[in-house]
Amino acid sequence: MSKIFHFSLPTITCSSCVSSIEGILEENRSTLKIKSYAVNLTEKKLSLEFDSDDSTELTSLQQQLIHLLDDEGGFPCSLVLKPNPEYFRWVYAAIGILTGLGLLVLSMTGLALPVYVMAIIGAISTGLTLFLGKNSFLHAIKQWKKTRSLNMDTLFTISSLSLIVVSVVAFFVPWLPMMFETGLLIFGFRHLGIAIRNLMTNKMMAQQRFQARAPRVVRVLLSDGTFEDKSLSTVTPGEIIFIDASKADTVIPLDGECLTANATITELLVTGQTSLRNTKNNETLLAGMVIPMGYPAITLKVVRGQQSSFLARLDANIDEAISKKAPIQAYADKILQYFIPFVLGLSILSGIVIGIFFSPMLAIQCAASVLVSACPCTLGFVVPLAISIGIHKMQANGILRFNNSSMIEAADSIDAVVFDLNGTLTEGRPEVVRGEVFDDAQMGFDDILNIAANLEANLSHSFAKAIWGHATQHLGSVRLLDMTVETDQKTASGVIGSLGEDEWALGNMHLMQDQLIDVPPLESSVTTNPAETILYIAKNKKVVGYFVVSDPLRAGARETLAALRRLGKSVYICTGADQGTALRYANELDIPEAQVFAERSPLTQTKTDCIRELQAQHLKVAMIGDAGNDASPIALSDLGIAIQSKSSDVVTQDAAGIVIENGSLQPVLNTFVIARQTMRQIKQNLWFSLAYNMVSLLLAGGLLVGLGFVLNPGIGVAIMILQTCLILANAYRFNKQKVPSIVTSPAEQNTAVDVLTDETEHSNLSQLQPVSNLAAEPPEEINNYAALFRPAVSNTRRLNVPQPPILTVHSSLPGACGP
Q: Is 483 helix (H, G, I), strand (E, B) or coil?
């Protein structure tokens, strides 16, 4: 696995800086063996992957990169070890603002100071201005010298140096104004603005790192039975840790094997579901799952260290996703391409126009105010900041992998959402729940079941697995027969084979009709709900029995689809199942028949054809599936979402832009809701930034001169800071904005968890009460892991997880399926 290195770029301020860095990297891609890179403006960070595995060469390439960016681009760069809080910004801001305001008050008093005193004040203020603006001056000069590009530092350099020159010349030309305080105010407010922005963005970005949620220190069980507190980074696979939640909700810090049965966890970060569930012995728990406060502690045998934990993988995925710019970022970059030249032109025009009708002092002030009031940097970080928050919110709500940031814009533009049926809308774990052999079959049910298992033995379809699984459970073992199954006769509707002189067929109604086999009218009397499908078994063109296979809808499927419709999305089903089965599920989900594409198989119309049909109607289409036959339509769609499960296909996940965990469909809804929130945030801040810039430029450019009011350039910088703070405040609001949860039915809630206490029996999740008197410390004497971590409580509590459906049979039939 290749390693991504992170470099700090503390001086970048806008998209112009980002473009310059990207240009340098592209020019030197082959020399530096750069495999991929991404510049993150909000975090002032470069993430870069080298095409090399040699440690010595990697060190050399890192040093070459650092020198290249500093020497050619004027961007100081260093390998990220620890975030730099930049305390000096606050000190510089205080120096500039306090001295600038002091000089401004002094000039307003009208005191007549001697020339030598004025010269001393001018020299000190000029020296302070040059000191405070040193980095901006050097950066602007290097940028122009190396790349001929303009940025925010260019505007500050031109305005402040012009004011210093005019103030110095005023010693010799009395009608010119002395404005030594202005340069101090410009850079004082400049440092204050950067400090505020960095403080707010760093705080928000720190919340975006999933690993920051885990405790830094964990309790590790030693071989002698005692415990030791160890740093999380030093814990290795195989060690056993004790995780206690007696004081607050506690995040499980590492992936591991659970050694505590019937503890309670929530797995919002993994599945997008907020409900509680209890653990099982030896099940795998992922870092990021939470033990609610007051519930039993958990013993965990670590299987992955900190750097490869589920939380670490989520953080790495965010970095990778942000590496590709969203299309709307190109729109913002295009605006910035013309914005700075526009500001320079407006500054010159303002100075000329005001100079014609008013004094030169007013003209110079207006021109300088225009330069420093503009804030193109906000246009630069609006998009990446919102995208970063959006991706984090998605991954915090059940989206496991997010290939690139352009998927957010794609999700927001979707018109039609197409669902695969089996394994996507349904749980994908079908079970045989009933079966019957007809009296004239002249065979027992066990014989029929054994033949059905032989027909399905080499097939990977979920229904085939259901038949095989039921046969092994009911018969103990399947007796293999010398049966021939023709490969070219295997279809999505069933399977055909031969045993001796007898021909057998097992499948749904569609297969029976294809084979010209008469089927008795059993549909209405045998199936009891949409989740049940009849598989007929025929011998020599005559139906001799059937199996009822149930594949229930996923939890919250109805609510998810209803919520998608409320978002304005059209919902479709595209499946290889027969028309009758698909329509039964569609009716249960309130999907019109016209929006159901059934019997889609390689031998007829494919699922890919379904996507093309919808796209031909000028619809933006999202495809959601899990199996291998969903890979092509997912790749063709405008947005592909793969559901990760034990039966899902890795090729399908690779083809998808988004991968979600198996379980509830809540993450599917979360994808579209958060995408809409993100794009709304971007558009709000982009248009606000443009409007705010235009108004501030007009005010600074002399719009109020007729009323006798002129903005001091220092005040112009304060206006710019206010704009940045307002945009960051809106981003903070978006970061805290809740994602609506689908509401499950009371029946689903009641069967989720059953809690018993000595006094009361509860059957609703909302009534769960935490155990208040759990032992916060593990006992000293150890017999086994279960005894070691059994909580000391005075009352008895039991959590019952949902059980699989009980197999029902026709008890009056001699060959009915057993449990």
A: coil
- Give the pair of three-digit tokens for residue 124: 């000190």
Collapsing DSSP to helix, strand or coil, 391 comes out as helix
Read off the DSSP letter of residue 814: T
In angstroms, the CA 462 to CA 626 distance is: 12
Contact 494, 506 (CB under 8 A): yes
Q: How many other C-beta atoms can be found within 10 angstroms of the C-beta atom of residue 82?
A: 6
Question: How many Å apart are CA 711 and CA 731, to the nearest integer?
Answer: 29
Phi, psi of 29 (to 5 degrees): -60, -50
Query: At 793, phi and psi to the nearest 5?
Result: -130, 155
Which candidate, 818, 815, 798, 770, places its Cα nearest to that of 250?
770
Which of 596-599's residues contact partners 24+ apart within 8 Å by CB, and which partners? 596/572, 597/418, 597/572, 597/573, 598/573, 599/492, 599/493, 599/510, 599/575
Q: Is 278 left (phi over 0), alpha (psi -120 to 50) or beta?
A: beta
- pTM summary value: 0.63
Contact between 412 and 679 under an 8 Å Cβ cutoff? The reply is yes
Burial class (CB in 10 A: 0-12, 13-18, 19+), 565: middle
Counting DSSP H helices and E strands in the chain, the numbers are 26, 30
Quick one: pLDDT at residue 781? 33
List the one residue out of 669, 721, 644 whose CA is nearest residue 196. 721
Burial class (CB in 10 A: 0-12, 13-18, 19+), 129: buried
CA distances from 738 to 47, 210, 390, 670, 677 (A): 30, 18, 12, 10, 10
Q: Are 749 and 765 in contact (CB under 8 A)?
A: yes
Q: What is the DSSP letter of 304?
A: S
Question: Measuring CA to CA, which residue among 131, 636, 65, 45 is closest to residue 384?
Answer: 45
> What is the spatial distance between Cα 394 and Cα 408, in angstroms, rounded to a whole number?
10
Which structure tokens are listed for 424? 């996507």
Pairing verdict, β 658-661 and 639-644: parallel
What pLDDT sits at residue 646?
60
Please state the three-class secondary structure of 79-127 as a single string.
ECCCCCCCCHHHHHHHHHHHHHHHHHHHHHHCCCCCHHHHHHHHHHHHH
The mean pLDDT of the chain is 76
Cβ 601 vs Cβ 507: under 8 Å: no
Query: Cα separation of 32 and 22, whole Å?
Result: 13
Task: Reduce the DSSP state of residue 46 to 3 states and report it.
Answer: strand
> For residue 194, which of 25, 44, 26 has the smallest C-alpha distance?
44
Cα(80)–Cα(315) distance, rounded to whole angstroms?
A: 16
- Mean pLDDT over residues 26-46, rounded? 80
CA dihedral (730, 400, 675, 291) positive or negative: negative
Instruction: Name the more confident of 720 and 207.
Output: 720
pLDDT per residue as tens digits for the range 47-106: 888 888 777 888 888 888 888 887 777 788 887 654 455 678 889 989 988 998 888 888
DSSP SS3 for 698: helix
User: Could you tell me where the DSSP H helices lie in 170-234?
Assistant: 180-208
The helix (run of H) or strand (run of E) holding residue 364 is helix 360-373
pLDDT tops 80 at residue 317: no
* C-alpha span between 714 and 365 (Å, rounded): 10
6 within 8 A of 80, measured Cβ to Cβ: yes
The CA-CA-CA angle for residues 271, 274, 275, to 5°, reads: 105
What 3-state DSSP class applies to 709? coil
225 in the Ramachandran plot: left (φ > 0), alpha (ψ -120 to 50) or beta? left
Nearby residues of 93 by Cβ (< 8 Å), 6 or more positions away = 188, 189, 191, 192, 195
